[in-house]
Amino acid sequence: MTVKKDGWIVTIAYEYLFAPSKPWSNEVNLCTLFWQFVFGLFIGWPLSIILVASTLALGTFLGFFVGLRPSILKSDKPTNSAFVPIQSLPKIGKDPILPLYIFLPIGTIVLMWNILKQHWTVIKEFWNALLASQVFIIFAGGILLLTLVLWLLYKIKDTEPAKLLKEYLAAKKSRVCPIVRIE
Predict the structure, then answer these.
(1) For residue 76, which of 25, 39, 46, 159 sits 20 to 30 Å off, Cα-Cα?
(2) Among 83, 54, 55, 80, residue whose Cα is nearest residue 71
(3) Over the range 56-86, which residues count as b (16 or more CB within 10 Å of their CB) and which as e?
(4) What pLDDT score was predicted for residue 170?
(5) What pLDDT, on the 0 to 100 scale, is given for residue 24?
(6) What is the pLDDT at residue 99?
(7) Minimal CA–CA distance to 33: which of 131, 151, 161?
(8) pLDDT number for residue 75
(9) Which long-range contacts does 56-60 make (Cβ < 8 Å, 24+ apart)?
(10) Of residues 65, 52, 152, the one with CA closest to residue 105
(11) Distance between CA atoms of residues 89 and 92, nearest Å
């Protein structure tokens, strides 16, 4: 079996944030490649996306307090820094007014607390109804997940990942993992 160097399998198996380095040669064991692909698909890439998104969100949120923003959010000149100063802050002299960004979240928290106190019984009733309908939610989620899996299997039946799965299952049945060429 051969796989493309810039195809789905190699990209998912070897190119997420904390991925192992790519194989030195153009040949790799089928079983190793399959499990690298499965790990990258279900753990590596989702975790990488969550880490990058949370870093951007937290950096954006905390950056506003000190007058910074992520450089990726606006087309800037290329920079080595992940965060750049916010240019449009109101200023007194040369210094930007940063307390503006401190009072806004405090006011939001106080407002949310008052709303929560006033509507606590509604929230509690909603939570109880949600717990009571858990069986239905789990059943509907299972049906939805099964439908999604079947649809995905139909859509990817002739792609590289499907061929990798077929080859892996045949190799496991014969108890021999052949070599896969990466081209």
Answers:
(1) 46
(2) 83
(3) eeebeeebbeebbbbbeeeeeeeeeeebbeb
(4) 93
(5) 67
(6) 53
(7) 161
(8) 59
(9) 59/83
(10) 65
(11) 10
Read off the tokens for 153.
Answer: 């299997």
Average pLDDT, 10 consecutive residues per value, the chain (183 residues): 86 81 80 91 90 85 74 66 73 68 74 79 80 82 88 81 89 92 88
In the structure encoding, which two tokens stand for residue 146, read together?
């099964």
Give me 140's structure tokens.
């509907």
Task: Please state, in angstroms and as integers, the Cα–Cα distance from residue 159 to each residue in 37, 45, 80, 155, following that order.
Answer: 14, 19, 38, 9
Token pair, residue 46, equals: 């989702």
pTM exceeds 0.70, yes or no: no
Domain count, the chain: 1
CA–CA separation, 55 and 65 (whole Å): 16
Domain that residue 97 falls in: 2-182
R_g of the chain, CA atoms, integer Å: 25
> Which residue bears the tokens 């160097």?
5
Residue showing tokens 């014969």: 174
